[in-house]
Design a protein that fits this description.
The chain has 164 residues and is α+β, with helices and mostly antiparallel strands. It has six helices and five strands; from the N terminus they run αβαββαββααα.
Length: 164
Amino acid sequence: MSQPDHSRFAGDGPFDPETPWILVYVSAALEPWSQEDLLALLTLARKRNASRGITGMLLYDHGGFMQALEGPRAAVQDLAAAIRRDPRHRSMIVMLDAPRAERSFPAWSMGFRDVAEAPAPEGLSRLFADVNERDAFAAHPDRVHRLLRHYAETPRGPAPAPLA
């Protein structure tokens, strides 16, 4: 079986196992999470991720999650498998699973943004609610990455510009 071409993510040439790996998924909570639930999740995730060499970003929107996990491939994929088994959510869809030239969130064991705190860019609310939009994002992994970076880089405050 041939390896998929991830050159636009990790540069030219064959995949090096030391190259950082990124996995991005979306899922739906069985019930909306309170701020206390989210804080407890983040506290535990940050501690565990730091010990595994995993960094990333978590977005939460009215019961929907989008999370980027990055780090050593085995650690990222093991964590994604554990998340998939978590009974507190359903409909986990992996949107991006590929090597990266470098980490996008190197300083964060788990960055977080509750997108209810700020107006969402065009398309985000549909992303969590509409499987068709998820498919559209999955078909364009660069858009998934831009969305996460948008929330990582946009200060809380005025409405962000729509994603093109």
